[in-house]
Amino acid sequence: MEADALTFIHLQGALDVFIDDFVKTYKSLLKRDNKKATGNLIDSVKPLELEFANNKYTGSISLASYWKYVEYGRRKGGKFPPFDKILEWVKVKPVLPREINGIKPTQKQLTFLICRKIARDGIEPGNQYKEALDLTWAKNNKLISDAITADLNEAITLIRL
């Protein structure tokens, strides 16, 4: 048997199942925690091809660029978030401003107030990505372990021949 003849076909299948399950779980947790204003984040979560290079598998997913703020939050005392992105969120959500002293703020004024609050107070982390990863691992670790065992058993059988 050649050194490069060892294939992990069962592991590839198990990792594909793991990634697909992670995507479904992550989307479900984002919906559960009401992280759907425009739906862009949830719609952006897609599995990418499993890659094998340098003797390791890499599974990836695509995500909207702002996922990290939903996951990790923002520290307080930071700079203003992107005004145009918050304005888009205000328009889509829709955020209904309250009248204060007979004055109802415009969408741009409301966006400024939201940006200021985020910069001043930060945003609490959501942790849906981590939770999805933990849940998916707990659900699929035996499948992955069994796949590795099956691949190694097949390799050992080939060596004996």
Query: What is the rounded distance between the termini?
Result: 9 Å
Name the helix and strand elements from N-terminus to C-terminus, one letter apiece.
HHEEEEHHHH
Strand order of the largest sheet: 1-4
Structural class: mainly alpha
Number of strands: 4
**Can you tell me the residue ranges where pLDDT is under 50 for at least 5 consecutive residues?**
none
- The mean pLDDT is 89
Work out the helix count. 6
Largest sheet: 2 strands, antiparallel
Strand content: 5-15%
Helix content: 55-70%
Describe this structure as you would to a colleague:
The chain is mainly alpha-helical and 161 residues long. The protein is built from six helices and four strands, in the order ααββββαααα. It has helices at 9-32, 40-44, 67-72, 83-92, 107-121, 128-160, and strands at 46-47, 51-53, 56-58, 61-62. Strands 1-4 form a two-stranded antiparallel sheet. A hairpin with a 2-residue loop joins strand 2 and strand 3. Helix 1 packs antiparallel against helix 6 and helix 4 (83-92) crosses helix 5. It starts with 8 loop residues before the first helix and ends with a helix. The relative contact order is 0.19. The model has no long low-confidence stretch (mean pLDDT 89).
